[in-house]
Structures are given as structure tokens and as C-alpha cells.
Specification:
The complex is a heterotrimer of chains A (367), B (358) and C (93). Chain A has 367 residues and is of the alpha/beta class. Chain A contains 16 helices and 11 strands. Chain A has helices at 10-23, 35-44, 63-66, 69-79, 102-107, 118-127, 144-156, 171-179, 193-199, 204-211, 222-237, 257-266, 296-299, 315-319, 343-346, 351-359; strands at 28-34, 54-61, 84-88, 111-114, 132-139, 162-169, 188-192, 215-218, 243-245, 267-274, 278-287. Chain B has 2 domains: 4-172, 2-Layer Sandwich (60s Ribosomal Protein L30, Chain: A), CATH 3.30.1330; 180-345, Alpha-Beta Complex (Phosphoribosyl-aminoimidazole Synthetase, Chain A, domain 2). In chain B, strands 8-10-7-11-9-12-13 form a 7-stranded mixed sheet. In chain B, strands 1-6-4-5 form a 4-stranded mixed sheet. Chain B has a two-stranded antiparallel ribbon with strand order 2-3. In chain B, a hairpin with a 2-residue loop joins β2 (85-86) and β3 (89-90). Chain B is globular. Chain C has a domain at 4-58: SH3 type barrels, CATH 2.30.30. Chain C is 23% helix and 34% strand. A 5-stranded antiparallel sheet of chain C has the order 3-2-1-4-5, with no helix packed on it. Chain C is elongated, with a radius of gyration of 19 Å. The chains are: A alpha/beta (367), B alpha+beta (358), C alpha+beta (93). The interface between A and C is large, with 55 and 37 residues.
Chain lengths: 367, 358, 93
């Protein structure tokens, strides 16, 4: 595949790795924000190519992982209703709520369907006027333009049987929250490439300046991640703390203005609880008053409730980069992809799932 | 024997060339499984007509056959694929190929199959006939006969169209021990073709994920090429066909059963570009995707080159490749050398494949 | 963050800019994607697609830079050692 496979070249990967080795003189902690980047790092073994002094800390950029427990429970409640067709991205189906998950609701007879795009849910609403179609809108800024367009089109078509359960989250507030935590050891960031393709990277210079951390907007293929790490290391070794763009083939400084416009039209910024982390102010998107009719929480009159995570689940600490998955006592024992305690083990972009799949035995010899 | 090129979808003028023999009833009724006149009509006009052989014609509770000298290989499978018809095959051809291939994995020459149908009330008779004709054609090409069967009909809503259960008998005429426990350090691992076509052909039709593609299922019989390997005196330690769970599952099962560390190289594993693209799009790993006409062979190192050459000379092995080797007898592990040259664990896939979207 | 892959626009349909759709070719697989967010995209362009939406047009010139990056860095390093030598081509943004 063009613009994909050529960024997986083994020789070039080794060259980048050598250059990183050459430049690194001190220990550095670098966080890759995005779950897709975590997945690529673990799947391709990128961290094994790096000098031992570089520690990669896996960030909270897995939207499935950070969807609050209360939101999953609301989804389960809606999905169980007989007049509802509940649509969702595939990843959400096995995320555990307080007592069950969407897959179990489906097995019990709930009409739960995987869709590839939110527009598929709109189509379902047009085709099934006697049913209520609900879409589970989970994701970072990358997904917000898609859900925004779905709501916008539903409004244009005057659909009355369509609504969304929105749980969008924003990256920059999360980075701020992480950096302001006293335990934070992160010294440099690989920012999420596709989030920045939408939003641009103009929000990052104040963060870079305030915390004196280099931030490099990075793509998702091995070559991208290695170049991104190299650019962060270059800055760290020379004491700089700027925002740079590695993913120039897809990201412009100002981002995608049409997408941003529709996001502003449909959504409003609001506080959001991040599963395992807690509430981060101004870190979520929800439907604004103009589109309130499409808000499933309002439509189905779901009360807010508070749920506690199972005590053994340390996914919050994993998401904040405080511990690595295999440092959790439940990892691989009580908690596996077949019976997960938390979302980081369910989502294929979750750090725990990535570690379980590719790193279960610590002493894996690289070639 | 021909490859899967000849096992094609029933042509669009299928109903002209091959009219449904039961025109009175456009749909299967409960009575067609009731043991009475209607069931006998169904068996006679459909199954006996299509599978037509004297053994089946005895219409007895069990069919008695003479067996050639040698050991017996015996297998059973059930087929519940959805949709029933897909690019490159259908539940019927898949049932025949799958059973034949299971027998082939012991190095057996497949001989006889049974076929039991569990039909949901209301299934169009034409659908059943198309499946039966497909099985007839597949059986003919594989050189096997369907000599016994069963017919049940379940209430509407209790059966999802059509399920097929088969059992198969074959004769083992070689002296080798083709079992996982015979896998040894130094064995070379061969695969007969590219991965993931069947799984992605089905995925493309799955509601909510539809995409346009020309990916056809790789459902095909592999018995013939296995027998050729045996005839050439290739020392085969183990064979395993790749179905649900794909290559990753098969390698892990064998590593576990044999107590060995297996090493495979990602770059050597053939995957067609469109299958690769479909997997990227849905966030799936081709190593976890189901295949149907694919198997891996653990061959004694000194015979590996010859085995590869024999595979490549056969229609169903044209894309054969060496993908790895057995490293040592140790706690079971499968290591994959990734595209950028770093080793990592290749795990058993967990649960049902859900497309990774976000 | 979210799975987004590059594909080539083979055809475009729809007049309304907000519901413009493209038939995208991903290595032989075809799927429709909404082009509302890439109004400048035309047939033949590569776009990054996420959940049925093109989010960005691939800048083909930028796409090649990663392959020359290390070489450029080498040249820059040589320049630092030899201040009088000719300048290399412009590097990354």
C-alpha cells in the first residue's frame, strides 16, 4: 500500500536507530500520546531498537480505554432496549461496564451492530423508521469531524429516530493534566498525528513553553515513530523545547479548517471524566444546545451515576504512564483479553492488550 | 486434480442449466425433516440425484464399505458460515474441501464423506439445491463420494438458514508419523500460499463493514498435493490446515503440542496486497485471519527445497513459501521477526475478531 | 489514535460540498469516503481516511522527505564542520 508500506523499511529503521544511539548521551523519558502509536511500537518492536537510556512511556491516547465507566453503563442500558438499534465501533463491544458489556447484551438479544462509520448509523436510521438508532460516539478529535457530520446530516434530513451517545475527549487538556501531576516523568512528547491532522498544532507551543518539553507531531508507521523520537532526542540533547512536525505529509500547522468549523458548529467543550484518570476540565466534547435533540443521554433520560472501578484494575496508572502493564499484579493473571478488568486490556490499542499480545514473556530476544 | 479455479460460484444461469428438482415446494417445510413422504422426496430427488453413487443408493441407516489396506483416518466438522454463498465458494464446497483437507493433514487419501443437513424451515429450495450441487461438484473433483447422510428441519427462527455437519474417512498408506509431537528442532516450515483470503472475503460482506473487493475465498482441496509430497518421499513431521484463528493459531497449537520454540519471519509470509489493505482498513492482523485452502508443513530440513518445489508445481501451492523454522525444544513459544527486523511474540488471537476502528 | 489509512481517490460524486463522496482505492480494496473535509481533493489524490471520512490530502512531496532526512542531517553536520561548504536543500518544517 502506497504511503504505508514504504514506512516499514527495516534498513531505514536500523539507520534511524543508529542515529538515535549516536545522539543519546543521557536518560530520557518520552511519551507517545496515541494508542495507535503504542500499538505500532509494541507490534514492530520499535522500543527494542532504541538505546536503553530512552524510556518510552505509553500515554492515555486510547479513546476506548478512557471512556468513563458510567458512559459504558449508559450505553448498555440503551442497547438493551427492544426498540433500539445500538451502533458502535467494533472496539467498544468488549469493554467491560460495571456488570456486563455490549457483546453480552447482544448475546441476550439486544440489537447491537458494528458500523465502520457514523454515517452508516444515519443510513440505518433512514432505513428503519420504526426503530431508534443510537450511535456510540467515542474518540478523540480525529473522530469528532465524523460524528459531527453524522449529526449535521441527521438534522438536515430531519431524522427523529437518530441520536448519539457522545464521549469525545480532547488531547491537549490531557497532556496539561499529565504534565501538572507531581509524579510526571515525561520529558518529551510524540503528539498524536491524526488528531493534529484535524486540529493542527497551534495549541501546543504554550504547553511546550510552560513545561519546557519538546513536542513532535508524529505519524504511526515505524519510520514516522523513529523519526519523531529522533527529533525529540535532538531537542532534548540540545536543551530545546519546541513544537515540530514530523508527519508533514498529513498534518499542517493550522489543521483542517472545514473539520474544525463543523466541530464548533455541532459540539461544545465540556468537562469529561477519563476512565482511570479522573475528571479533566474542558477535556471533552458534547453536543451543543442546537443539536440537543440528537443527544441520547437527554433523549433516553439517563440519570448520572457514579461507579467505582474494580480495585485491582490499575489501568489509570498505566494510562498516566506511572506503571507499565506488566507491573500490575493482575496482568496476565486475573486480567487477560479474555476476561479483562479494565479497558486497557480490551482495546487493541490499549497498552495492556499490546503488552499481553506481544510482550507476555519479558525476555524476548530481538533479532 | 484441479485447483480452486474450477470450484466457481454457480453461474447466473444456474437455474436454467440445473433446475431445482422439487418444484412443488419453493421452501423447505418442517415436514421435509419429518421422516415421511416429503422427506423421502427430498432425499430422493435432491441428495441421491446429486450425490448419486451406488453406496448412497442403498439408503440404509448405515453404509458398509470395504477399506483398502492401511490405517484409517477419520474426521468430523460442522459448517455454519454466514453468508451461505460468498466469492469463491459456499457452505457446501467449503464443507467438502474442509473435510478432505482435515484428512489430508494426516497424509490420508480421502475416500468417503457423510453429510448431515440441519435446515431452517423456510429455506428456499433453490438455495439448498445450489449448495447440494456445489457439494456434488466439489466431491467429484476431490475424488470422494458422499455415502451417507441425515436430514433435519428445525422451526423457523431456530436455525439461521443451513448448517452442515460432515464426517470423513480416508486411508493412510504411508508409514510416516505426521503429528505435532513429531515436530523437531531444525524443521523447516512451509506454507502453500498467501494468507487471509477466506476471512477477508467473508468480512467484505459483513453488514456494517461492506467494502468492494475482488477477494475470493481460498477454499480448495489440498489432499492431492500432500499425497504428491508423500509419494516423493518427503519427510513430513506435521501438517496443519489454517482455518479459524489463522496462521497464528496453528503455529501456537503446534508449538504447544510439540513443546518447541518456533520462529517465523514476517517478510516471508505471503499476503496479497488487497488482503493486506483490507486488514489495515479494519485493523486486523493477516496472521489471525481465517484461510480455507491453506496449510503449513513441518518438513525435515534436508527435504525442504524439494518440498517447496513440489508445492509450487501444483495449482494449490503456486504461492508456496518458506516462512520459518523450529528452533529448539523448550517451553512453547512462537516468535515473529517483524517487518523491521525485531522479534516479538506471535500470540494466539483472542476471541472473535472485532475490527479495530479507533 | 484512530485508525486512518491512505487511499487514492478514483472517482468523486455529489454536488453538495458537505456530502461529496469519493470512491477510494486502498491497495485494491474500494470503499466510499466522505470528502467534505477535503474540498481541494481531486481524482488521483491520496487521502488519509478515518471512519469513512477523508481528513487530509497526502502531500506527496513531504511524503518523501523522511527517506532523505538522515542524509540531510549528515550533510548539515558536515556543514557545521566545514563552514565554507555549499548549503544542503531545505530540511523539515
Amino acid at each position: 500500500m502506497k504511503y504505508l508500506d514504504e514506512y516499514r523499511d527495516g534498513d531505514l529503521a536500523q539507520q534511524f536507530a543508529r542515529e538515535i544511539h549516536r545522539l543519546t548521551t543521557r536518560p530520557w523519558n518520552i511519551m507517545e500520546v496515541c494508542g495507535g502509536q503504542t500499538h505500532a511500537i509494541v507490534k514492530f518492536g520499535i522500543d527494542e531498537l532504541l538505546p536503553k537510556q530512552i524510556t518510552l512511556i505509553h500515554g492515555p491516547g486510547c479513546p476506548v480505554c478512557v471512556t468513563p465507566l458510567e458512559m459504558i453503563d449508559k450505553a448498555l442500558e440503551i442497547a438493551a432496549r427492544p426498540d433500539v438499534i445500538f451502533t458502535s465501533f467494533g472496539d467498544m463491544l468488549r469493554v467491560p461496564g460495571s456488570t456486563t458489556d455490549l457483546l453480552a447484551v447482544k448475546a441476550k438479544g439486544g440489537d447491537v451492530r458494528i458500523v465502520y462509520s457514523p454515517l452508516d448509523a444515519v443510513k440505518l436510521a433512514e432505513q428503519n423508521p420504526a426503530k431508534e438508532i443510537v450511535f456510540f460516539g467515542v474518540g478523540f478529535e480525529t473522530t469528532a469531524p465524523a460524528t459531527a457530520m453524522a449529526v449535521y446530516q441527521a438534522a438536515q434530513k430531519k431524522l427523529e429516530n437518530f441520536s448519539m451517545l457522545i464521549s469525545h475527549v480532547l488531547v491537549p487538556p490531557a497532556i496539561e493534566a499529565l504534565m501538572s501531576s507531581p509524579n510526571c516523568r515525561v520529558q518529551g512528547f510524540l503528539a498524536a498525528g491524526h488528531v493534529c491532522a484535524v486540529m493542527g498544532y497551534e495549541e501546543y507551543p504554550p504547553i511546550a513553553a510552560k513545561y519546557h518539553v519538546p513536542i513532535v507531531v508524529t505519524g504511526f508507521e515505524p519510520m514516522d515513530i523513529l523519526q519523531g523520537i529522533l527529533m525529540v532526542v535532538q531537542q532534548l540533547e540540545s536543551g530545546r523545547a519546541e513544537v515540530e512536525n514530523q508527519y508533514t505529509r498529513a498534518v499542517r500547522r493550522e489543521g483542517n479548517s472545514t473539520a474544525q468549523e463543523l466541530i464548533r458548529k455541532v459540539f461544545k467543550v465540556m468537562p469529561r471524566k477519563w476512565r482511570g484518570v479522573g475528571e479533566i476540565p474542558q477535556s471533552g466534547l458534547g453536543l451543543n444546545d442546537t443539536y440537543a435533540a440528537f443527544d441520547a443521554e437527554k433523549k433516553f433520560g439517563l440519570a448520572d451515576h457514579h461507579v467505582d472501578e474494580p480495585a485491582e484494575c490499575l489501568s489509570g496508572l498505566v494510562l498516566q504512564g506511572q506503571i507499565k502493564p506488566h507491573e500490575c499484579p493482575a496482568f496476565g493473571a486475573k486480567c487477560t483479553p479474555e476476561h479483562p478488568l479494565g479497558a486497557t486490556m480490551v482495546s487493541s490499542e490499549g497498552a495492556c492488550a499490546a503488552y499481553y499480545r506481544y510482550r507476555r514473556q519479558p525476555a524476548v530476544a530481538g533479532k | 486434480m484441479l485447483g480452486n479455479d474450477s470450484i466457481m460460484q454457480p453461474a447466473s444461469d444456474f437455474s436454467l442449466n440445473c433446475p431445482v428438482p422439487i418444484s412443488q415446494y419453493p421452501n423447505v417445510l418442517m415436514a421435509h425433516g419429518g421422516g415421511g413422504k416429503l422427506m423421502h422426496q427430498l432425499i430422493g430427488k435432491m441428495f441421491l440425484t446429486a450425490f448419486g453413487n451406488p453406496l448412497l443408493g442403498t439408503q440404509h441407516d448405515s453404509t458398509v464399505v470395504g477399506m483398502p489396506a492401511g490405517k484409517l483416518a477419520f474426521t468430523t466438522d460442522s459448517y455454519v458460515v454466514r453468508p451461505i454463498f460468498f466469492p469463491g465458494g459456499d457452505i457446501g464446497s467449503m464443507a467438502v474441501h474442509g473435510t478432505v483437507n482435515d484428512l489430508a493433514m494426516s497424509g490420508a487419501r480421502p475416500l468417503y464423506l457423510s453429510s448431515a443437513f440441519i435446515i431452517e424451515e423456510g429455506l428456499p429450495m433453490e438455495t439448498l439445491w445450489r449448495v447440494v450441487c456445489s457439494m456434488r461438484d466439489a466431491a467429484r473433483l476431490c475424488g470422494v463420494q458422499i455415502i451417507t447422510g441425515d436430514t433435519k428441519v428445525v422451526d423457523k427462527g431456530k436455525g439461521d438458514g443451513l448448517f452442515i455437519n460432515t464426517a470423513g474417512i480416508g486411508v493412510v498408506e504411508h508409514q510416516q508419523q505426521i503429528v505435532p509431537q513429531n515436530v523437531q528442532p531444525g524443521d523447516v516450515i512451509l506454507i502453500n500460499g498467501d494468507l487471509g483470503r477466506h476471512g477477508m472475503a467473508i468480512m467484505a460482506l459483513r453488514e456494517g463493514l461492506e467494502f468492494e473487493s475482488e477477494i475470493e475465498s481460498d477454499s480448495a482441496p489440498v489432499a492431492d498435493v500432500v499425497l504428491q509430497l508423500l509419494k516423493a518421499g518427503i519427510e513430513i513431521h506435521c501438517l496443519r490446515d489454517l482455518t479459524r484463528g489463522g496462521l497464528a493459531s496453528a503455529l501456537n497449537e503446534i508449538a504447544e503440542a510439540a513443546g518447541v520454540r518456533i520462529e517465523v519471519v514476517e517478510k516471508s509470509i505471503p499476503v496479497r496486497e488487497d488482503v493486506h489493505a483490507a486488514c489495515e482498513m479494519l485493523g486486523l492482523d493477516p496472521l489471525h485471519v481465517a484461510c480455507e485452502g491453506r496449510f503449513i508443513a513441518f518438513i525435515a530440513a534436508r527435504d525442504a527445497e524439494r518440498a517447496l518445489s513440489i508445492l509450487r508445481g501444483h495449482a494449490v501451492g503456486a504461492g508456496a513459501a518458506v516462512i520459518g523454522q523450529v528452533a529448539e525444544k523448550t517451553s512453547p513459544l512462537v516468535i515473529l521477526q517483524s517487518a523491521i527486523g525485531v522479534g516479538r511474540i506471535l500470540d494466539m488471537p483472542s476471541g472473535e475478531q472485532l475490527p479495530r476502528i479507533c | 489514535m484512530c485508525l486512518a489509512i491512505p487511499g487514492k481517490i478514483e472517482s468523486i460524486s455529489g454536488d453538495d460540498p458537505l456530502s461529496r463522496m469519493g470512491k477510494i482505492n486502498f491497495g485494491g480494496i474500494h470503499k466510499q469516503a466522505c470528502l467534505a473535509y477535503v474540498p481541494e481533493a481531486k481524482v488521483g489524490d491520496y487521502v488519509i481516511v478515518h471512519v469513512g471520512f477523508a481528513l487530509s490530502v497526502v502531500d506527496e512531496e513531504e511524503a518523501h522527505k523522511v527517506f532523505g532526512y538522515l542524509k540531510q542531517m549528515e550533510e548539515l553536520a558536515e556543514l557545521e564542520d566545514n563552514p565554507g561548504a555549499p548549503l544542503p536543500e531545505p530540511g523539515q518544517t
